[in-house]
């Protein structure tokens, strides 16, 4: 009997490379050398009978066939892990409340949560988008959510993140650059005062930006105020001004500002999955461990 199908290890590397956009970045996600991952991809393409990536100096992009396989691969890997967890007695059911900052991978978060739902089909998810400060301040025993994911600014004087206490440090699942962003078709020269597109003052990132510009005496005006990251992205794409976004929040039609504009350097940000609370259920603890793997 001829075996038909794909190797799980090869699929795992394939997904990592596709999501990271390069073999080097993808190999770090699966803890393998670049040469090992390249060999896996070669074997996977041979198995598929067609190219799965278009390779260039900038990295890799999935072909049409690669895009189709990517959807299948995510489901296959999720089902494989779900089967393993079930046999280990770690299958999850019941309800789970998750609070997430909208700065976290806005173009990928729906897919990540879908993968989690497919991995644990008996678990009912309730997802709420909240400001990071609200998530951190609500991390006590009476919080309205079971698991929280928040953004922290890594300022020079506070390497543990702007949110503060050790109680809510949690697990760092991702680090990203913070960038000044502008419409891709904007004029190359932006006059002063700089027109800013900001979120409300409840957003720690926007408070930092205003304070930083004031300290350096950089002239600016608030050209537009958005209620969330999605609105901020739309305003930037429409050319309403300059904004501040983490790397994964910069989508189509928006690019990082050129250094020639003279805007100040920005710090790195971290995404923290908040730690478990005393006495929390095994269901929540197991779900947190699974989300660490998916969010990282």
Biggest sheet overview: 7 strands, mixed
Indicate the proportion of strand residues: 15-25%
What's the tally of helices? 9
> Level of helix content?
25-40%
Keywords: DNA-binding, Transcription, Transcription regulation
Organism: Paraburkholderia phenazinium
GO molecular function, one term: DNA binding
Protein name: Transcriptional regulator, LysR family
List key phrases describing it.
alpha/beta; D-Maltodextrin-Binding Protein, domain 2; seven-stranded mixed β-sheet; two-stranded antiparallel sheet; 9 helices; 23% strand; globular
Task: Give an overview of the whole structure.
The chain is an alpha/beta fold and 296 residues long. It folds into three domains: 8-76, Winged helix-like DNA-binding domain superfamily/Winged helix DNA-binding domain (Arc Repressor Mutant, subunit A); 94-173 and 271-295, Periplasmic binding protein-like II (D-Maltodextrin-Binding Protein, domain 2); 175-266, Periplasmic binding protein-like II (D-Maltodextrin-Binding Protein, domain 2). Helix content is 38%, strand content 23%. The chain has nine helices and eleven strands. The protein has helices at 8-20, 23-29, 34-48, 64-87, 109-119, 132-137, 204-215, 229-237, 282-295; strands spanning 53-56, 59-62, 94-100, 123-129, 147-154, 171-183, 194-198, 220-225, 243-246, 254-256, 268-273. The strands form three sheets. Strands 3, 4, 5, 6, 9, 10 and 11 form a seven-stranded mixed sheet that branches. A hairpin with a 2-residue loop joins strand 1 (53-56) and strand 2. Helix 1 packs across helix 3, helix 1 packs across helix 4 (64-87) and helix 2 (23-29) packs across helix 3. The protein is globular and about 70 Å long.
């Amino acid at each position: 009997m001829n075996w038909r199908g794909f190797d799980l290890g090869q699929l795992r590397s394939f997904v990592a490379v596709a999501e990271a956009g390069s073999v080097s970045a993808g190999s770090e996600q699966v803890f393998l050398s670049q040469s090992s991952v390249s060999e896996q991809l070669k074997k996977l393409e041979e198995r598929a009978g067609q190219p799965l990536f278009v390779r260039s100096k900038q990295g890799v992009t999935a072909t049409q066939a690669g895009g189709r396989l990517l959807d299948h691969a995510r489901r296959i890997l999720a089902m494989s892990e779900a089967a393993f967890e079930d046999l280990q007695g770690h299958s999850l059911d019941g309800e789970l409340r998750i609070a997430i900052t909208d700065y976290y991978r806005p173009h990928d978060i729906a897919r990540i949560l879908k993968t989690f739902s497919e991995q644990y089909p008996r678990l009912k998810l309730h997802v709420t988008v909240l400001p990071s400060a609200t998530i951190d301040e609500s991390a006590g025993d009476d919080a309205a959510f079971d698991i929280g994911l928040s953004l922290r600014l890594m300022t020079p004087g506070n390497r543990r993140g702007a949110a503060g206490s050790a109680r809510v440090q949690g697990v760092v699942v991702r680090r990203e650059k913070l960038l000044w962003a502008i419409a891709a078709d904007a004029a190359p020269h932006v006059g002063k005062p700089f027109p800013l597109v900001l979120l409300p003052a409840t957003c720690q990132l926007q408070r930092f930006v205003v304070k930083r510009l004031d300290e350096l005496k950089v002239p600016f005006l608030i050209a537009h105020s958005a209620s969330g990251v999605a609105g901020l992205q739309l305003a930037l794409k429409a050319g309403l001004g300059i904004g501040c976004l983490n790397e994964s929040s910069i989508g189509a039609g928006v690019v990082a500002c050129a250094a020639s504009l003279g805007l100040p350097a920005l710090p790195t940000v971290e995404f923290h999955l908040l730690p478990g609370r005393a006495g929390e259920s095994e269901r929540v603890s197991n779900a947190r461990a699974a989300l660490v793997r998916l969010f990282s």
